[in-house]
Amino acid sequence: MRYLCIYKPRKDDELCADPTEAEMIAMGKLIDEMTRAGVLLATEGCAPSAEGARVKRVGGETIVTDGPFAEAKELIAGFCLIQVQTKAEAVEWGRRFLEVVGEGESEIRRLYEPADGGGCRAIPPEAS
Taking the model in full, what pTM does it have? Predict the structure, then answer.
C-alpha cells in the first residue's frame, strides 16, 4: 500500500530558520534508512506559500488566491510517498520523521490503488 505523508510544521511562521548541519545529517540518515528498507518512493520540501496559489471552484466560478496564506496550521512544508504493508508501518515512519524534524504534524493518507476500483467507498474501513 502506498501512503502520502504530509508534513505540517508547528511554527507560527513558515519562514523558519534553515535546518542545522546536525538536523540535515539526521534527515539524511533517515532518508537513507527508508531507501535501504525499500519504502521511500519520493520526498520533497515545499517552497514558502508566498510563492504559491490556491485554486478553488465554487458555484461554477474559479477563484485563484495568491499566497502567502495566513493559517500556519494549514501550511504544508513537505511530503514523502512511501510503500509499506500496513497503516501501522506508515504511522511508525511518520513518528520517526517527526523525531528528526521536531514539532509539527505528519498527516498519513493511504492512496487508492487500481485494485480499489477508484472510488472512495471501494476501500472497506478495516483495510485502512
Answer: 0.80
